[in-house]
Every structure is written in structure tokens, then in C-alpha cells.
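Hi support team,

I'm filing this because I wasn't sure whether my run with pyridoxal-5'-phosphate finished correctly. The job status page said complete, but I'd like someone to confirm that the output block is well-formed before I use it downstream. Pasting the exact inputs I used:
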Amino acid sequence: MRRNADLDTALAEAHAAYTAAHPESLARHRAAAGALPGGNTRSVLFYAPFPLTMLSGAGCHLRDADGVLYVDLLGDYTAGLYGHSEPRIAAAIRAALENGLSLGAHNEIEARYAAAVQARFPVLERLRFANSGTEANLLALATACAVTGRKGVLAFTGGYHGSVFTFAPGRSGKLNAPYDFVTTPYNDAATAVAAIAGMGERLAAVILEPMQGSGGCIPAEPGFVQAVAEAARAAGALLIVDEVMTSRLVPGGLHTMLGVRPDLVTLGKYLGGGLSFGAFGGRAEIMDRFDPHRPDALSHAGTFNNNTLSMTAGHAGLTEVFTPAAQAALNARGDALRARLNALCAEAKVAMRFSGIGSMMAVHFTARAVRNGEALADTDPRLLELFFFDMLAARIWLARRGMIALSLPVGEAECAQLADALGGFLERRAPLLGRADAE
Ligand SMILES: Cc1ncc(COP(=O)(O)O)c(C=O)c1O
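And here is everything the job wrote out:
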């Protein structure tokens, strides 16, 4: 690849090379548009000029419709923590299949899995299962409204809590669930505390991620979370911590590192062992409102809440594979990788850095520390796009928005492949990137 004189030319060349290399994916994308709007049923996976179709996965590799093999560093946005073919999970699913699907009754695995999840996340004095992270957050917020008799919710710009809870800067969130939302900037304690005081008795809950995942792997500052928690308590509102992505980072959940005890916590992603999953829970006093022995019990049905496949896969994954030791090793690998990538950026003296914690990280084209989405407002989105297509050309699969979530099968060789690809990107594209010392 030759050096490109300007960013638009570089991107046009990258698109042309991509299109030429992926005729089968293009054909499948076009065919899919007959039934699916724009050929898509999961918005985050779409990117122009057309998305790749993956045909298979094994370990931490994916193969696309044109036969190209990639190192999968996206890990299905954290849900693919176990990789694509973890044998202990596959065996457990096969065994569950033998016992029949859709029993339509209490089954013997749901309570065992609930106990295992509770053992890993002690904040969950009681929990209930759902089918997705979105659903878990809908239920946590609905619970907060029912318990407080209020409707207001404080969320944070850049936050993402599911398909009906999008608070990305500059995006309308037109499909957002009709709560009385107020949003303030992440990691800005004073503005959040003022908003909480302003909402007063209107406020049912504050919902926050202990590290914004979709928003760019931006860790919360402990002082911010503690101030928000205290203000929420003073206002008589609940603190809901969305650990759908971050629960993989620390045994107990990331909130345990921030010095707060949430009223409710939501879970999802990898805890389904690769199948659909969601859960919410927390203080017994709140969750026991769902106890069906009570005449005034809150009702939360859901055909697939206790489906045997998700329960079984989740249980096998959490108890046999993602042990606390495996969790520590994976996150140490992520910390080391992020340090290595940042060292390369620093050496090249470009305005580029990787933020995150442990096995989750995201690239940003800025030299400044990223505290919230507002800090990224003046970065050029074309750089992220170019990085994505250059990584694809280097056979690395990551999120179009620059996110990486390591899965357990990712080893030293795969980390080295990314570091080499970044080295090539920095070498080739440095003239297009901002200078670190210019900011
Ligand atoms: C923090 C967070 N909460 C909730 C969700 C929604 O989960 P799901 O896609 O399973 O509905 C996501 C998904 O990316 C998420 O990142």
C-alpha cells in the first residue's frame, strides 16, 4: 500500500480494495436486503460500503464468505468471551439438548445458575433472568419506577443500555423507551449532582455503566460515581449499575472497584455462554417484590427467561471456564496489550490512544485523556474508519467504531498480530494523523 496524500483518497482506496476482495459478502448483503431493511437486523454490525458476512468461527478466528480468515478481536462486543467453540460449553449444550427444549416449567438448572451468578456477584442478593441486556435494563428501570412511584431517569451522554436506551452524542435516540430521561456528561460529578437535585422527587433512578463500553471504553472516575450514588440516595432514587459488558472485568463486577453499592445491577452478554441472556438483581428488599407468594407481587413473565440452553451454557461457562483465575489472566493480557499499543502510539508521536480496562479497549484519535464523549467531539471520524479497514486488510476483526474485547482463546500470537498491524498503520498513515505534541 502506498502512502496516501490525504484522508479521503486513503479511504477511497481502502474501500475499493475491500470491495474487490469481498464479492461474496457483497452479493449476500444485496440478497439479504430483500427481506431485511438494508440487509440488516442488528444495527451495530452495519458499515458502508457493505458489511462482511461471516460463515464460521472457531476458537478466536472467523472465516468470511470469501474464505478470508480473521483473528477475532471483537469477541462479539464482549458476548463472545468464550470464543466460538469452547468444548466444555458445547458439551453442556449437547447434554441439555438431550433433555428436551421448552419445558414450560421450573427446571433444575435455573436455580443452580442463579446461585453461581450470585456467588460471583455478591451484590445480587436476589436476581431474575431475562433474555438480553436491553430487557434487563428495561426491567431494572421499570422496577425502580414501581418501587419509587416515579418516572424520571438520569442517564449519561455516551451511555448505551440497549437498543431502546441510546444516549450517543449527536444521536437522537428516537427509539428510546418513553421514560422521563435527563442526560448529563459522563464523569462530570457537579453537573450530574445538580441534575439529580433538580429532578428531586421526579427521579426514580440513575443508570450508569461503570465504564462506558459502546461509548468508547471510558472508565468511570470513582469520585464521579460516588457523588452520583450519594445524590441519588439523598433524592430517594435507586442507583442502577449496568454491568452488561463490564462484569467480565472484575470478580464481583466493576462497581466493586468504585466504592459504591448499587441498588440494582444488570447483566448480559457472555453470561449466556454464547446464547441470549440477561439478568437483573440487587437488594433483596427490592427484588423480593417479585416473590409470587406475595399478594401484591410484581409480575415479570418471559417465555425464555429460564430457557435451558442459555442457563446451561451460562452455567458451564461461568463455573468451568471463566473461573476467577481465568478472569484475572484474561484481563492482565488485555492490560498488557493496551500498554503495548499505547507505547507504539507514543513512540510514533501521533494523536492516537487506546482507552479501557483489562480485556476491553477502544481506539481514539486524540492525544488527550478521554473522560467522556464530549472530549471526542472534535476528532475526525474518517480516521476511525481508515483504521478499521486497514485492520481488516491485516486480517483483524474488530468493531467498526474501534472497540476490542478479547476472548479467552486470544493468545500472545494474536496480540502480536494486532501490534504488528498497528505498527504498519502508524508507519503508513502517520502523515494523516494529528501530532501528539500539537494538542
Ligand atoms: C452496557 C450495555 N448495556 C446493555 C446492552 C444491551 O444488551 P443486549 O444487546 O443484550 O440487549 C449493551 C449491549 O451492547 C451494553 O453494552
